């Protein structure tokens, strides 16, 4: 009954292969799920050497049914599309960008076919992706295209702090223009459903303002009056437990204090900055990261996708020092969502049987 979780390797020139080996070799991941890496066996074997986990078995397979899913073994859908001897670790390249794209596309295909219960993505590099002729701004857009999804949003999570976004990868000027009632209510609905999928019965949703002090009744902007407040009022009319707009300089502290189960942020950095302030911890004395935590989740898809909340870290790639905590948390969230959907499906089937 352990959910089968497909884990993409990310950009093979980045830290994805190394943290994948660390996560699956050093932690009891196989106790709660069946982890299946989508990547390249040769790259993973090289990463195992780099991080000093030479005894781990790298099991190359073609289909999920062939996996062993046990401690001491990493099962890999072997795409065979990267040669570690010619790959420049820590460098942007079209070869690595294309490989990363193919890993994601394969994972989506497996999930859409029901062969894996959820997907987890390691970081890809947007420049490498575009060099390969794959013109996407990130994972979210790839997932949206290959699942045929039009209404989606990003959630970031670190412990009890969860944030969803009205807009993400657009210029700040455009982000302000995208603060519209219809989009805000759409994101509120998606956020509520995501919380319920995680087992939160009556989610409390806080909605951030766009302008300083929520515009001070129109003094610093009218988006709150014309777009955000109407969206919040409509959500309440639908029975969604929603509050806002709340000034962005206080709402995240309130959420950490337990006031809200999720915060609706108006644009990319408004939501990303507070998550990374609490999740990314740098040790100044030892000159290293003690924690790089946080999970990126795409909501609104027909399949489950969670991700690390950091980049390819080319400056650390090949050193064996990269931190695997964010990947472990992404796997935890994938398991949580997979189990939630399984329970929801079981409940629906039981209800149908009772009616019949």
TrEMBL record:
GO terms for molecular function: 4-hydroxythreonine-4-phosphate dehydrogenase activity. Gene3D superfamilies: Isopropylmalate Dehydrogenase. The keyword Cell membrane does not apply. Coiled coil: none annotated. Its EC number is 1.1.1.262. Its cofactor is a divalent metal cation. Homodimer. NCBIfam families: pdxA (TIGR00557). This is 4-hydroxythreonine-4-phosphate dehydrogenase PdxA. It comes from Hungatella hominis.
